[in-house]
Amino acid sequence: MVGYLTHHAQSLVGSIGRLARAPFATALTVLVIALALALPLALSLFVSNALSATGGFTGAVDMSVYFKPGVTLGQVQQLARNARARAGVAAVEVISADAALKEFQQYSGFGTALQALGANPLPNVLHVRPAAAASTPADLDGLRHYLSAWPEVDLVQLDAQWVLRFNAILALLRRVLGIAALFLGAGVLAVIGNTIRLEIQGRRPEIEVVRLVGGSSGFIRRPFLYTGMLYGFGGAVLAWGMVETAVLVLQKPMADLAALYGSSYTLSGPGLAQAGVVVASGLGLGWLGAWLAAARHLRGIEPRA
Amino acid sequence: MILFERVTKRYPNGREALRAASFSIDRGEMVFLTGRSGAGKSTVLKLIAMLERPTRGTVVVNGQNLGALKSRHLPAYRRTLGVVFQEHRLLDDRPVFDNVALPLVVAGASAAEMGKRVRAALDQVGLLGKERMLPNELSVGEQQRVGIARAVVGKPAVLIADEPTGNLDPDLSVEVMKLFKRFQDVGVTVIIATHDLHVVHEFGQRSIVLEDGQIQGGAETPLPSMTATR
């Protein structure tokens, strides 16, 4: 048992040593793997950032209910109570015409121009937020019909269309991400498999001797599996570093852009979970690629006599 | 210990290297396999080491019928053998110690045990103190002795050698053969394929003569003191 663990440690150290002795070749292989892993990681970051930039789905489908001129705030508050009682409604907020005007004066920069107006041109408004569980297009349509059926209501504005489109785009991107991950994962397998194949060929005399003195297939395979995992690990760490660097470089201009839209949104890099997934994928693909190459190419190597 | 029963080996190119060859070798015996090049000497050793399988016939080593040996048990079987080649087949990028230790590493020996046994094996072949040198820093004779140390470090029951003196001058050849004799003295079964009849006569062990894939004239036992084996 101790000998077995010792051999594992020796295989790992030996693999590290072998990789370090050919730094240029190792760096090239690791770089190729890193690029193949960085692309899906960047894409998944794009999706998660797009989600957080838009604040998710539920917050985005507020309905604005504009009342006709002359409808009193009292009537509006009564209707708000009715709306709150309805199933599928999460929250209802009353924005009086006066409050809306004050806010508009404050933020729009038209303050003095608005003061020139004799009367408040803004209507009373309700913000109705559907419950997350009742946010399907059909639910939203039903709620919109209910609200616009009130005679006091002038217009019900539902900004769901862009949300639906946006979500469709995100779903598409996730699918693209899946396909890209699949293809690039296969690419990583091929790169590692081919590298291990070359190494097996280069170490043929040694493998023959080890077979001759009674080395089992597992024993012979082990250093190659460690080499594969090291490639995968190195590639994954480099991929993470590249994406993290890209995020750091983009953070400032992104924040500037967001500020112009009045948002305090900042680009976020790969979290611990995403980094963990990338490293685990690198290790797994490295192991698998090496295992496939070893299974295929070690079989043919028998000692000559 | 080793039994060949009507063993025929036909290679894929159609050449019959062995034709219904039968012989046996006792435990602890030292035997020379002689005959011209191509007579089948190497094939006998390959069949013992399971580098080849017979086309027909039965090979039994140490009570184990090799025809029934499953390939997953092959590594364990090979650990009971020591094999020496004409070209030493050492790993040039590793020091003598690592080369000799390889069978122990493969068997999962502890570091302490490894150090002890590698030094013991190197001591037996007279190379103690050269364990940190690389194989190509050694003379041809020394390299061959490192190969022998590697073959015996795992305390094999059977030691097989294919033309171990083929690259050595007569003096070195005798020295190497004396080494093999010492392993026989401690109970190892030793089989040496050689065409060096001078050495064969000098050591006076039984020889099995192969000609064209067949055993010639039964087993010779040149020394009267040797117990005849069939």
Account of the 3D structure:
The complex is a heterodimer of chains A (305) and B (230). By secondary structure, chain A is an alpha+beta fold. Chain A has two domains: 2-56 and 164-297, no CATH class; 63-158, Alpha-Beta Plaits (2-Layer Sandwich). Chain A is 70% helix and 8% strand. Chain A is built from ten helices and four strands; from the N terminus they run ααβαβααβαβαααα. A four-stranded antiparallel β-sheet of chain A has the order 2-3-1-4. Chain A is elongated. The two termini of chain A are 32 Å apart. The model of chain A has no long low-confidence stretch (mean pLDDT 85). Chain B is an alpha/beta fold and 230 residues long. Chain B folds into two domains: 1-80 and 156-222, Rossmann fold; 88-155, no CATH class. Helix content of chain B is 33%, strand content 26%. Chain B has seven helices and ten strands. In chain B, a hairpin with a 2-residue loop joins β9 and β10. In chain B, α3 crosses α4 (111-124) and α3 packs parallel to α5. The radius of gyration of chain B is 17 Å and the shape is globular. Chain A binds chain B through residues 2-4, 6-7, 10, 205-206, 208-217, 219, 302-305, and chain B through 42, 45-46, 49, 51-52, 75-79, 81, 83, 85, 89, 91, 102-103, 105-111, 150, 154, 162.
Distance linking N and C termini of chain A: 32 Å
- The quaternary state of the protein chains shown equals heterodimer
Radius of gyration of chain B, CA atoms, in whole angstroms? 17 Å
Helical content of chain A (DSSP H or I, runs of 4+):
over 70%
SSE string of chain A: HHEHEHHEHEHHHH
Distance between the termini of chain B: 13 Å
Q: What is the averaged pLDDT score of chain B? A: 87
Number of strands of chain B: 10
CATH architecture tag of the largest domain in chain B = 3-Layer(aba) Sandwich
Side by side, the strands of the main sheet of chain B go 6-7-8-3-9-10
The biggest sheet of chain A, with number of strands, parallel, antiparallel or mixed sense and barrel status, is:
4 strands, antiparallel
CATH class group of the largest domain in chain B = Alpha Beta
Residues in helix, % of chain B: 25-40%
Structural class of chain A: alpha+beta
Average of the residue pLDDT scores of chain A:
85
Number of strands of chain A: 4
Instruction: Give the uncertain stretches of chain A in residue-range form.
Output: none
Largest interface: A-B, 23 and 28 residues
